[in-house]
């Protein structure tokens, strides 16, 4: 059998195949370059529930936890610890000289029956008397009584205290662990802000809708302006820089005590509504003239309070000045929780004041000082004191005929364009 020469045909096929391979390779390279030059694909957006979880759990610093290792807040450096001067309660009937007691009636026009002579409460700001706040604590219901503001007609989640004939008080409600006082008139169970629970993080045994009377004890011998300023119990702050010997010396004149120790008292109904948030309740009574807060003040001299005192058992920590706001105000639960947070950041351990204390029964008229004052009575007293000087002034003034008539002076001033209100 004879063979045929196919060499030319094979070479032609190989040539075509080569060109096809080169073309395919070029296409592949071009496609790869195009993909590499394209913008990277955007990452998939996180799910909506993931975003919500992140927003709901922001990263925060636990400042209270940092206190434990702080060189500034070591409780062992607290120079006021144990400074309280021990003065025991005493039966009121056994007191040789009755000491004025608190809390009393602060209704406008009320004056107690206990004659305290020339003793006067400190009626300027405590700051002007070189006093600083040394503690803050509060009572369930009110220890004071202001008719129409916090009284037996008020209300709360557990009602209010009744007012017997002589204005005594029993438990705010059956089963209460601490004795409650009177209540404000704000509470309305149909409004959510009075009933919606609040998630308390720092305060304990607190309740939305309840009334609390807040006290800020002040003292001129506290460790003012230092890390030791705020103390629990408050007696440590009040007596921080005062020995028993010094106290005995100044106590000879009761006015020395009333002029150097005082308490702010202000009453609130707690609401779950952030428009009533106030960020700093540590420094003392909230004063806001636009909202009538801290403007209607009842001044008098009294004593320390609490459930260990009554109308039979008197406090001998007296006489001290009381400045009590007659009005009741609403404040957010978060304001109190922020206060408790701030209390936990003090050098001294204030955890024993993070809850409401019991309220003393309303003090009888016979134990309330008769030196009550307010803005109106102080203004009237100032006018009366100035009257003698005004009557004597005409004798020293030039004769009437030598002075220009008032009408002429007014007319001249008006013509010159200088008339002022």
Give a brief rundown of this model.
25% of the residues lie in helices and 13% in strands.
Q: Can you offer a commentary on this structure?
A:
The protein has 421 residues and is of the alpha+beta class. 25% of the residues lie in helices and 13% in strands. It has nine helices and ten strands. The longest helix is centred in the N-terminal third of the chain and has 31 residues. The chain is globular and about 70 Å long. The N terminus and C terminus are likely disordered.
Q: Rounded to an integer, what's the Rg over CA atoms?
A: 38 Å
Biggest β-sheet description: 6 strands, mixed
> What shape does the CA trace take?
globular
Low-confidence stretches: 1-40, 168-176, 403-421
Counted by DSSP, the helix tally is: 9
Rounded average pLDDT: 83
What is the beta-strand fraction?
5-15%
**Percent helix:** 10-25%
Alpha-carbon distance between the two ends: 141 Å
Kindly state the number of beta strands: 10
Instruction: Return the structural class.
Output: alpha+beta
Order of helices and strands: HHHEEEEEEHHHEEEEHHH
Describe this protein with a few key phrases.
421 residues, alpha+beta, six-stranded mixed β-sheet, two-stranded antiparallel ribbon, 9 helices, 25% helix, globular
